[in-house]
Model the fold of this input.
Amino acid sequence: MHPFAVPSRTVQAIRSAQIAHRICTVITACLMVAAFTITEVGMPLASAAERAAPGVTWASPIPAMEILEAFDPPKEAWLAGHRGIDVNAMSGEPLHAPAAGVLRFRGSVAGAETVSIETDSGYIVSFQAATSDLKKGDEFAAGEEIGEVGDGSHCDTSCLHIGVWKAGGNKVYIDPAKFFGHEQSILLPLARKPAREPAEEPGKDSTTSGAGAWGGHRNGRIPDSAMCVLGSAPGQMLRCDAQKSFDRLSHAYEARFNAPISVTDAYRDYATQVILKRRKGRMAATPGTSNHGWALAVDLGGGINSFGSAEHQWMRANAPKFGWIHPGWARQGGSLPEPWHWEFRK
Done:
């Protein structure tokens, strides 16, 4: 061997080290580019964990929420898309907190009045167009009035845009519909909607409920002191015996489906019934006649609102054991099929 020659094993080791160094340099550069891209434009898509809705259904920010345009996010953050949902609403309607939290922002964003909150569970919820008299940092409970729907929207008709993302980290938009139990929107044709909600249909097994007058109260004018808040759906209220029974039912449902029953609507006071009549016309009950005005009826989502689903079938088989029934008129063969509507039987 030449006196200055380098052993072949040493040469191979040096070459391997050089190759490894080059690979590390390339990987580091790629990671730096990726990190810069994420920081600048945000993550375009949510992970499965980030997409998950909370264990408790949020209260509806406006009554009888109907989705006009669904969540349709872009594949890349810089592309066009619909990063939230548009729901039917009219200017001046009260805006309620979907969950307990604090006011995060109120002001104008891109020329539209905007209100955003941070929930105690760590989500940011933005409403547009909306206004609020609260100040940044003000606290509120689920269902509490925090503002009102504002003027102007990007919809053909008046609407409220709702966006949701996780607080902290990258701003990744999540489908708000699942937080409210609205995996799908089911609308009843106007031609089939009667001026008044149908009466009970006697003679059918387990379909007669007690959704009527009680305690000397008038429809939609029941004091809060005579009702109780649902433990499984904060912000929603029912008569106390109905509430206790429903929470037991929801606990049994959760044991089967790993989530409590999604309640999209419960008690509706008279003012809310007036708002719905103004917004929906014939699609809403005459104020003072709504079954929801007795605090003994609920509208449900999360799959229960679809005939034939496993969730709906489970409810049909088990809800009557807890005093909750699907009225004959609301069943698939009834006069006004509404899979989502359930009532408490005395």
In short: Residues 183 and 245 are 25 Å apart (CA to CA).
